[in-house]
Design goal:
- The structure holds two protein chains of two kinds.
- Chain A has ten helices and 14 strands.
- By secondary structure, chain A is α/β, with parallel strands linked by helices.
- In chain A, the strands form three sheets. An eight-stranded mixed sheet of chain A has the order 6-7-8-3-9-10-13-12, sandwiched between helices. A four-stranded antiparallel sheet of chain A has the order 2-1-4-5, covered by helices on one side.
- The longest helix of chain A has 18 residues.
- In chain A, about 45% of the residues are buried.
- Chain B is an alpha/beta fold.
- Chain B has two domains: about 230 residues, P-loop containing nucleotide triphosphate hydrolases (Rossmann fold, 3-Layer(aba) Sandwich), CATH 3.40.50; about 60 residues, no CATH class.
- Chain B contains eleven helices and twelve strands.
- In chain B, a hairpin with a 2-residue loop joins strand 11 and strand 12.
- Chain B is globular.
- Chains A and B meet through helix 5, helix 6, helix 7 and helix 9 of A and helix 7, helix 8, helix 9, helix 10 and helix 11 of B.
């Protein structure tokens, strides 16, 4: 396999200014030396809770935000050092889908114009051919041709997200970055959009970087998964390995916190849930050593001092933990009758 | 058998149509249910199902210009529909505590959390300022905020999302309620924090004998916490059941679809074939005739679009609003 995206040491610090003189008060360490490789044609998911840096990561990769340090190679070419003018034509090849289909479509444009705009910006299709291309795009995402003459507010949430996907596909990109694309949608339509993304990935040979917080959903769609905590990757593995044999205590706790759609029998109780103490610390003052150690059920002295790096714990499976695999994980059947 | 804690009968909530001239839009239609003391019940539905409006109707807080057009809400035998705001005062935040989704917007950012809890305590119980402050500290302790006495002087922005939701719960408990209405209390929270808050709600239910109505879109959360569940779709209560019965043998095709569409960690569906419900939730003004689920239903019959479906008993404490079960109902 060849890699489409190679990220090395990607770091983003946001300075915080405070007070009358706007003195520099500190830095929010949103990303700290992230390394990852995305292969051509795979769906690579980045999961994490709010504030973990997953959206910042996506935005730094395609330079919607300027990274503080590190390297991003897209199809062999370094992106971080390109001038804006050099970068612009390359943007055709990586497109983004946003969480909120309400906020990311211009309410004053008809769908035909929304979809034709990227064609014009990147000079892809001559004006006369655009209506036909718009129709193809609508068909690709399962919308009727009549949708072209409507405004975004005339669609339901799920249909609007289809328009967002069609717009991202307009430039025939190689990489699609989907930032929480179904979080704002109802359960019954969420599955439709997830299936559409999987089908497009296969039919068009797309590479997808999927940003999400919903682990059950990620299991459904991803080939490989990276788990983020406080600006760092703490575990990277194939979806199968990550969900069957998680190694990092944070991943294990996160998986155990996901509510299970299986009722507890009367008089029984659920067992095996690892309820973490507290919440993720502020990236303004990250803890010393391992960022997870203050909440980790198996933290030891070493963890407060030494930052663990991602190291191999199995075939294609890495974890940033001094004691990987030590936290006991209950078997999947966690319902016990008393 | 004693009277239920809360009984809602034939509730109908209408909003005037946009033009003002047409038929009013009924966003909640013929909703009836009861809640017993000390039970935790889930009210499940997607956006636009009417679940939040149903909850707000209980405490007379339907947003204007909406109004309760028909029906009754009775709390321990007292009729609440038609009461003035003044008469509802001891009910709202008193006998019925309220928790909302977004703790950041529900708390006042310029007042300390101690002040806000104390205010709620004094609104419902005759207490001196000093005693109320001590009570506020006790409540913060009850919702497991560490070092409660010192946190009283904190402002909401100094707290994390989970702690803010704990403060909201402390305020909801200030009037010593019998019933807690929790509208998506964990939707804005991370999954590890959600687990903490659900655990807290379960503990409070046990310790204080509270009844809790958990309004949510997430059936997995209901499975983890509730003993009964009510499913709403497009303004109607389509199924009511003990949680076990709903998950084992859902009777309404909508409930079945919803359960199938739920991703289950550890049990992924084949790639690209995650079951979904075709179509979209209808807008309130564009309801199809008859059962509103008909256009999306795989088992629809001719009769389904001809008239409203009846609520049919299908098991013990288990009812479904569906023609499929009309024939098989036991006499």
């Amino acid at each position: 396999m060849t890699s489409l995206l190679e990220v090395r040491g990607l770091t983003k610090h946001f300075p915080v200014h405070r007070g009358w003189l706007q003195r520099r008060h500190g830095v929010v360490r949103a990303l700290e030396g992230v390394d990852l490789t995305v292969e051509k044609g795979e769906c690579f998911a980045v999961v994490g809770e709010s504030g973990s840096g997953k959206t910042t990561l996506a935005r730094c990769i395609i330079r919607l935000l300027e990274p503080t340090a590190g390297s991003v190679r897209f199809d062999g070419e370094e992106l971080t050092t390109l001038r804006p003018r050099q970068l612009r034509p390359r943007r055709r090849r990586f497109q983004m889908i946003f969480q909120d289909p309400y906020g990311s479509l211009n309410p004053r444009m008809r769908v035909a114009k929304i979809l034709a705009e990227p064609l014009a910006v990147h000079d892809l299709v001559p004006r006369a051919g655009r209506p036909q291309r718009v129709e193809e795009l609508l068909d690709l995402v399962g919308l009727a041709p009549e949708a072209a003459s409507r405004y975004p507010h005339q669609f339901s949430g799920g249909q609007r997200q289809r328009v967002g996907i069609a717009r991202a596909l307009a430039t025939a990109p190689d990489l699609l970055i989907a930032d929480e694309p179904v979080s704002a949608l109802d359960v019954s339509v969420r599955a439709q959009i997830v299936n559409l993304l999987t089908q497009l990935q296969e039919d068009l040979g797309l590479t997808v970087l999927f940003i999400a917080h919903d682990l059950a959903l990620v299991e459904q769609i991803a080939d490989r998964v990276a788990v983020m905590y406080l600006g760092r990757l703490v575990e990277v593995a194939t979806a199968a390995a990550l969900f069957a044999q998680p190694q990092h205590p944070y991943t294990i706790s996160l998986l155990s916190a996901v509510p299970v759609p299986e009722p507890v029998p009367a008089g029984g109780r659920r067992r095996g849930r690892i309820v973490l103490k507290g919440e993720a610390p502020s990236p303004l003052e990250p803890p010393t050593g391992c960022p997870f150690h203050p909440r980790c059920p198996i933290a030891r002295e070493r963890c407060a001092v030494e930052v663990p790096t991602l190291s191999s714990v199995g075939e294609g499976h890495t974890a940033a933990c001094h004691y990987p695999g030590e936290l006991e994980r209950e078997p999947a059947a966690r319902v016990e009758a008393s | 058998m004693s009277a239920p804690l809360l009984a809602v009968r034939d509730l109908r909530v209408e909003f005037p149509s946009r033009s003002g001239a047409g038929q009013p839009l009924a966003v909640v239609r013929d909703v009836s249910f009861t809640l017993e003391a000390g039970e935790m019940v889930g009210l499940v539905g997607e956006s636009g199902s009417g679940k939040s409006v149903t909850a707000l109707s209980i405490v007379g807080l339907v947003p204007s210009p909406g109004r309760i057009a028909a029906g009754s809400v009775s709390l321990q035998g007292q009729e609440l529909v038609g009461l003035s705001d003044r008469a509802l005062q001891p009910v709202r935040g008193g006998r019925i505590g309220l928790i909302f989704q977004e703790p950041m917007t529900a708390l006042n950012p310029v007042l300390s959390v101690g002040f806000q809890i104390t205010e709620a305590v004094r609104a419902h119980r005759a207490m001196s300022r000093k005693a109320a402050r001590a009570e506020a500290a006790r409540l913060l302790d009850l919702v497991a905020i560490p070092d409660a006495r010192r946190r009283l002087d904190d402002y909401p922005h100094q707290l994390s999302g989970g702690q803010r939701q704990r403060v909201m719960i402390a305020i909801a408990l200030a009037g010593e309620p019998d019933l807690l209405l929790a509208d998506e209390p964990t939707t804005a929270l991370d999954v590890t924090v959600q687990a903490q808050i659900l655990e807290l709600l379960l503990r409070l239910k046990e310790e204080l004998g509270l009844a809790v109505m958990l309004i949510t879109h997430d059936l997995a959360v209901v499975a983890e916490t509730c003993s009964r569940v009510m499913v709403m779709y497009a303004g109607e209560m389509v199924e009511t059941a003990p949680v076990g019965a709903l998950f084992d043998h859902p009777a309404h095709p909508y409930s079945r679809g919803l359960l199938r569409a739920l991703p289950h960690l550890g049990h992924p569906a084949p790639r690209g074939h995650l079951p979904s419900i075709p179509g979209q939730v209808p807008a309130p003004g564009e309801l199809p005739p008859g059962c509103p689920f008909t256009p999306r239903c795989g088992e629809a019959m001719a009769v389904c679009s001809q008239g409203a479906a009846p609520l049919v008993p299908v098991g013990e404490g288990h009812q479904a609003r569906c023609f499929l079960h009309v024939g098989e109902a036991a006499p």
